[in-house]
Amino acid sequence: MDWGKGRRSDNVEQATGGGGRGLQIGGGLGVGGVLLVVVFSLVTGQDPLQVLSMVTGSGGGAQVAQQTQAPDANSKQVDFVRAILGDTEDTWGEIFAAHGEHYQQPKLILFNGHVQSACGSASAATGPFYCPADQQVYLDLSFFDEMERRFSAAGDFARAYVIAHEIGHHVQDLVGTTEKMQAAERRGMPAQGAQGLSVRLELQADCYAGVWANHAQKRLHWLEPGDLEEAINAAHAIGDDRLQEQAQGRAVPDSFTHGTSEQRARWFRTGFDNGAVERCDTFTASRL
């Protein structure tokens, strides 16, 4: 992946210091009112790529603001993140404009070990996450090494997929999908399970990541042979069924929250092949 072609975003910041109160869980928050924390991801089978997207940050108690500073300008990893984020800004800016809307760019906060978000404090073990309460993506760069070591998901485009997936959750927040899903949950629609709301939300974020990749490739022609397979392999590596089988020897569909390996890879490919957000409607799809 010739990611050097990407425009560098100015919305990447480095967190300074540690977090404060701990993750807040309030009434009506998230899927089933329970935050899906993956500190024990290999035990629970949860997806370490996205665990906080459904938190609204309305839990009890005041939150301590996370201080940030400019990231290391000489870091190749930081440069990579800025290039990928910059292109997601360009892509989603164009897509929103085509629909007569304005795309509000999120901040991406890099952290080391621990961080304080408007959704509460989190650690590197949480994995990358999007916090709707402050509309920011949080990423510990060590997770990319963990991806390669634990999930055999290596390569620049696999890492780009991780960032694009989190940006997909930001898009869902902007267009109201997250809020509608939470309302549906409060009406009694199931969150967990193979057909649950959480699975549909996560698969849509995978599809949105594919939509971004489609538009980016058309604009920059930066993918090289094997790059697409890297992203598909990353999506496949973090399916609920695969993670649960690795952790406990069997998959339990009733506890799925993110979709199977096949589903995650297929919905990413759907977005990549079509490049149309309309093809990412996982909430009305009869086949997930």
UniProtKB/TrEMBL annotation:
Its main location: membrane. It is found in: Membrane. GO terms for cellular component: membrane. The keyword Heme does not apply. Pfam families: Zn_peptidase (PF04228). The chain crosses the membrane at residues 21-43. It is a single-pass membrane protein. Keywords: Membrane, Transmembrane, Transmembrane helix. The keyword Transmembrane helix applies. This is Metallopeptidase. It comes from Pseudomonas lutea.
